[in-house]
């Protein structure tokens, strides 16, 4: 796992690695494990960042992307490529996040679980690569569920600040949050192969193109959605109306309101259905017009 962090994420300097039981449990329990009292999370975000703060009774503050506007906190989440928007942080935005972690002495946790599916032609950039060997207050979160379609294995990992990961390990081992050895072996095998990841990235990209074309013809505006697993789009109506329209065609989408108030007029469509199903969905949309 260390080799993968060095080779693929570009981590350098002192860092530690810890396997987790998928990344969702880590996201949900990290504020509790680290006793963080104030937690920042993106305004449009994967709901578990908020849930994790609620479990611990931490003050959760939704924030914009630009870290120079963030209030002081003990922990801040970023997620790039994003679920649900498919937005990718620019290098400048990541650097601003690193400056925040250093100047505020606050932990920044970068959820990079979709990093293996970057925008077409772009190289994925981990926050650890930009840290240039100084990983203090920085942790990157990764998941085998996304990278290698191993969701059922419940396998993830965190990489970064050795001291903080040491503290996390200490609490987790007393809470029984250990990853079984056979799963760790499977993780090592999957992390050692990039071919299947590149093939899957191609698949998502092809599906995105097919479905985006049909959605645009149906009057949707696609926002961000350059990377990761999702199309984030709007018809400037309530997200429930868009979901209902697609449901009428037998297509399942998620209302953007699930990810925060700012998503109230968007929907999220996942590229996880098969190639045939995606093509069928695009055909149904086009036929309905
Ligand atoms: C942004 C983000 N982080 C973490 C997870 C958790 O994934 P897993 O627990 O399967 O590793 C998900 C799953 O959808 C996600 O979208």
TrEMBL record:
Pfam families listed in its UniProt record: Aminotran_1_2
Domain Aminotransferase class I/classII large: start-end pairs: 17-285
InterPro entries assigned: Aminotransferase_I/II_large, LL-DAP_aminotransferase, NHTrfase_class1_PyrdxlP-BS, OxyQ, PyrdxlP-dep_Trfase, PyrdxlP-dep_Trfase_major, PyrdxlP-dep_Trfase_small
Keyword Transferase belongs to the record: yes
Keywords: Aminotransferase, Transferase
Needed co-factor(s): pyridoxal 5'-phosphate
SUPFAM superfamilies in alphabetical order: PLP-dependent transferases
Coiled coil: none
GO molecular function, one term: pyridoxal phosphate binding
Keyword hit for Transferase: yes
Family matches, as PANTHER family: AMINO ACID AMINOTRANSFERASE, L-GLUTAMINE--4-(METHYLSULFANYL)-2-OXOBUTANOATE AMINOTRANSFERASE
Name of the protein this chain belongs to: Unannotated protein
């Amino acid at each position: 796992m260390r080799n993968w962090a060095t080779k693929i994420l570009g981590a350098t300097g002192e860092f530690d690695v810890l396997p987790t039981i998928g990344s969702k449990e880590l996201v949900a329990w990290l504020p509790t494990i680290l006793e963080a009292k104030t937690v920042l999370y993106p305004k449009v975000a994967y709901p578990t960042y908020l849930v994790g703060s609620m479990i611990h009774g931490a003050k959760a503050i939704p924030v914009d992307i630009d870290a120079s506007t963030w209030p002081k906190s003990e922990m801040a989440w970023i997620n790039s490529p994003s679920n649900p928007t498919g937005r990718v942080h620019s290098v400048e935005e990541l650097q601003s996040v690193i400056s925040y972690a250093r100047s505020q002495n606050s932990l920044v946790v970068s959820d990079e679980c979709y990093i293996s599916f970057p925008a077409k032609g772009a190289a994925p950039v981990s926050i650890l690569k930009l840290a240039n060997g100084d990983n203090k207050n920085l942790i990157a979160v990764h998941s085998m569920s996304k990278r290698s379609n191993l969701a059922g294995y419940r396998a993830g990992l965190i990489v970064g600040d050795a001291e903080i990961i040491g503290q996390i390990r200490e609490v987790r081992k007393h809470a029984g949050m250990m990853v079984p050895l056979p799963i760790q072996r499977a993780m090592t095998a999957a992390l050692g192969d990039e071919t299947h990841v590149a093939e899957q990235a191609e698949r998502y990209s092809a599906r995105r193109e097919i479905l985006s074309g049909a959605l645009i013809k149906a009057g949707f505006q696609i926002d961000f959605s350059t990377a990761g697993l999702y199309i984030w789009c709007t018809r400037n109506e309530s997200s429930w109306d868009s979901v209902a329209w697609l449901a009428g065609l037998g297509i399942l989408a998620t209302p953007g309101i699930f990810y925060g108030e700012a998503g109230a007029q968007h929907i999220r469509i996942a590229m996880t259905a098969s190639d045939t199903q995606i093509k069928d969905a695009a055909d149904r949309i086009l036929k309905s017009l």
